[in-house]
Amino acid sequence: MLPKSNLPPPTTSPPPSSSPPHTYPPSSIRAKNRRNRYLDTHPEYFSPSLELADPLLYDRLIRRFQTVSERESEGRAKGYSGILEADLLRSEAKLDALAHPDPNATFAYRRGPNGEILAEEEGEVPRDKEEGRKRWEYEMRKRFVRGADGDFDYKRVDEGEEFDDWGEEERGALEEWLEGEEPRWVDEEGKEKRELEGETGIQDF
Predict the structure, then answer these.
(1) 111, β-bridge pairs
(2) Which of these, 32, 60, 128, 147, has the minimum number of CB atoms within 10 Å of its CB?
(3) How many Å apart are CA 95 and CA 35, to the nearest integer?
(4) CA–CA separation, 53 and 76 (whole Å)
C-alpha cells in the first residue's frame, strides 16, 4: 500500500477535445525543479489511471506488454465504468490520430492501401516491458513538468519549499556561473592575463 500524502492525489487529463487543454508552464527554474522533485517523491503519480492522459501512448508502451492477469488486475482497480471510459477514449484517439496525424506525436497511426492500420516502424517499438515503462514515465514526466495536467494543483507544488533540492540548485547555479566566466591565467610576475602568449603546446623537460 502506498503511503498517504497531504498533497492532492494524482489526477488525469480530461477526455480529448477540439480545443487544446489549458497548461500551467513553470514560472521559474525553481518551480520546474520542484515539479520534478514531486514526481521523484510521489511515484504513485504514474498509476494506471494516468492512461487517460494519452491512451494511444499507454496502449503502445504499457498495455502491449501486460499479461492477461495484469490486465484483469488493472481492470478490477478501474471498475467497469473505468474500463469502458478507457476503451472509448482509446478508440476515439485512434480515429483522431488517423484523421489528423500529429507530426510531433511520439507514435503515429497510419492506414495502408486497403484501409488497415499499419504496424509501427522498428525504431518505435520498445524492446521489452522495462523499456516501455521507462519511455511512458519519461513522456508523462515531460507532460507534468510543462504543466499539461490540467486537473493538477500545480500551485501546491510550485510554492512548496519541501520540494526544493538545494544540491541540484547549487550545481545548476555553479554551471551557469562557469559558463559566463572567461578563462584567465597568471604569468610569472603574478599578473592576470586573459590570453596565453607564446604557448607552443609542447611540454619542456
Answers:
(1) 117
(2) 128
(3) 33
(4) 19
Give 121-129 contacts, CB < 8 A, sequence gap 24+: 124/60, 126/61, 126/65, 128/65, 129/65
pTM (2 d.p.): 0.60
Calpha distance 105→156 (Å, rounded): 30
- Quick check: helix, strand or coil at residue 117? strand
Q: Please choose, from the candidates 70, 68, 85, 92, the residue with its C-alpha nearest in 3D space to the C-alpha of residue 16.
A: 92
- Alpha-helix residue ranges (DSSP H) falling in the chain: 29-41, 55-61, 68-99, 129-145, 154-158, 166-180
Q: What is the residue type of 23?
A: T
3-state secondary structure of 111: strand
| Closest C-alpha to 26, from 12, 16, 14, 36 | 36
